[in-house]
Amino acid sequence: MVGERRGGDGDRIGYWTTDDDGGFVLEPDGGVDVDEVSFTVRNPAGGGSEEPVRRRGRPDGDEGALRLTVNAHRIAIHGGTEHRGMNEAACTDAGPIRSHRFHTQFPELDPYERDDDLLRTLGGTGGEADAPMMESPNDPVGDAETPAGYGIFGQFVDHDITFDPTSDIDRRNDPAALRNFRTPALDLDSMYRTNAEAAPFLYDHETDERKLLTGEAGAPDAADGGGLSGLPGTDLQRNEQGVALIGDPRNDENVVVSQLQLAFVNFHNRVVDHLRGPGADLVEDGESVLEAAQRLVRWHYQWVVRHDFLPRICDRYVLDDIEDRGRQFFLPPGRTPAIPVEFGGAAYRFGHSMIPNAFDVNGEVGEVPLFPTGPGDGRSLRGGRPVPSDLVVDWSRLLDTGDGDYQHARKTEPLLAPTLFDLPISGDSSLAVRNLRRGKALGIPSGQDVAARMGYDPIRNEAFGEDSPMMKTLRAHGRGADPDSPLWYYVLAEAEHQQDGERLGAVGSRIVAETLIGLIEADETAYPNAAPDDWEPSLPQPTPTEGYTLADVTAFAAEAAPDGLVIDAVDAGPGSGVGGGPGDALDESVTLRNLGDEPVDLTGYVIDLGGQRDGLPSATLGPDETLTVHVGAGADTDSDHYLGRGAPALDDEGEVVAVYDADGERTTRRRYVG
């Protein structure tokens, strides 16, 4: 909280930090009446972003208290939210409790129950064993062969299968999901919801209602060097408060998962274009283009999960065994699909170990931290806001497009990146502590008991090494002979022990693969059941990789270029830092490009430079041709047009540039920040 005198010149009188319940104490000194103080809220979880105070008042007329209501929306952090019905599938002293969305696979096994102090020591920082599960900067976890993008893809899949579209009223009336529930499936309901009628806000009813709406990335902050806003299709659609208008708000909790959601939106839109052109024969009889696009997007997504994602993260012998003998434990045929808590509350959380401190998002800014560590710490990949154009993800840097040049995921080991121990979230800030306590609350058995139940030789704690996080923790609590560990921890340690961290071991692979394959095979609309025999991906494969992969989805999505005229570049002059650099003050220009497939006749078009309007020449711009509009004087050519102004038109600090067609309708706009 920052306090300033009302009506003053920004004279700050104090700073306060709120406690956990949002309260802070003002100590009166007789100098300033509190009613004469205006307050600004700065949210460290949002990187120091300011939140407006919507309302202030005296609670119950108490002259000794002041209540400030802040207009800020809550951003979920992956691993920091609970799924409706999961608690109700837990094992309790009275036995397992039923939920249609989740179930306990091994209710006959005893829960792993150790006191919270031991779990906080294992997953926390500064305890009796320091920070046993935190990666040390002096001994970093190595890189896996798997590209870093698959850790985020795993998060995207988790959101898809746990997506809960029920209303707030139904959630309150049916917290255990006993009556109102959605059967878990890999069907991208987190993107499509159920259909266009149920979620009309997702679709472009003005231009092409078969396509999903997208937005434009915002201009970077001046503190980050400024620059141009993004082209159409570089961010999710958002409302005026910056909230993403998408099927599942969890897919905006960080920039990378937000951009992956966007990639699938653009993938859908590109498939629509393909079905109206060279891929028209992929539309089945009696099927609309929208229905065909949704079907093909879902089938290719399911194929990527089954034939690309799982082989990268699971033991190949386990996958071959499932292929030969079928599923042995999880989601057996004939049972109504429900997510095992051993999967959702433990094994599938292995992906947290893959996540690095920072992601190499593009060639302009390189690696950017996933979370802000405090106010004023510069760029971060925090979500819940318009994505700055300098953070638009280049997926060729996070996925293998065939050249082998990409950021690698961290190896799967019981050591997490330091950023995951200081989450910008209320309550436990360590993701490891949250996972361990969640497993205990759900009554999940130990990893060793689950291994034995599945027919594998359990790996005792001491076999993981005397310097392993679990053994350090047990010694700190005088429990060095304890042979068991939490299932989530066991899955991570097993991966390191059996696979050198490259992929999951036997138990982890069996739980994860059987669950995801089971969800696909239980869905009558999924490709194994609804596609012709021996179906394989039928959309173009843009990358030279072996087999169809996630990189083909993002590469094909990137071809969904804007349909028509765009502002390709802005040079705001030598004092702005946006454009060509030193030069004359009149060296300002805006470059237009036709990204459509048809010529654009510019007759009657107008360019608006921050409120100053000029007509464009009567010229035709062919596909991919450019026209640079210069503010100063010069001789016109086919690619250059001069306005002949005697003074600069573009503000060095930032401006919005727009183009209007002959009917006065805005066709494109971009914002820049100097």
What are its keywords?
single chain, 674 residues, alpha+beta, 5-stranded antiparallel beta sheet, 4-stranded antiparallel beta sheet, globular
- Mean pLDDT across the residues is 85
Strand tally is 29
Identify the strand order in the major beta sheet. 14-29-28-23-24
Helix content: 10-25%
List the uncertain runs. Answer: 44-48, 92-98, 169-181
Termini separation = 28 Å
Rg: 28 Å
Question: What summary fits the major beta sheet?
Answer: 5 strands, antiparallel
Question: Structural class of the secondary elements?
Answer: alpha+beta
Query: Globular, elongated, flat, extended or rod-shaped: what is the shape?
Result: globular
Q: Please report the number of helical segments.
A: 15
β content, as a range? Answer: 15-25%
Description:
It contains 15 helices and 29 strands. It is globular, with a radius of gyration of 28 Å. Strand 17 and strand 18 form a beta hairpin. It has 674 residues and is of the alpha+beta class.
Secondary-structure blueprint:
Blueprint lengths: L1 E4 L6 E4 L21 E7 L5 E3 L1 E5 L9 E4 L20 E2 L2 E2 L5 E2 L12 H8 L19 E5 L1 H13 L6 H6 L15 H4 L10 E2 L3 E5 L1 E3 L10 E2 L3 E5 L18 H21 L13 H25 L2 H10 L13 E2 H4 L13 E5 L3 E4 L38 E3 L20 H11 L5 H7 L15 H8 L10 H13 L6 H16 L5 H4 L19 H9 L6 E7 L17 E6 L5 E2 L4 E4 L2 E4 L4 E2 L4 E5 L9 E3 L11 E7 L5 E8 L1
Parallel strand pairs: 9-16, 26-27
Antiparallel strand pairs: 1-2, 1-3, 3-4, 5-6, 7-8, 10-19, 11-12, 13-15, 14-29, 17-18, 20-21, 21-26, 22-25, 23-24, 23-28, 28-29
Helix pairs in contact: 1-9, 2-5, 5-6, 5-15, 6-13
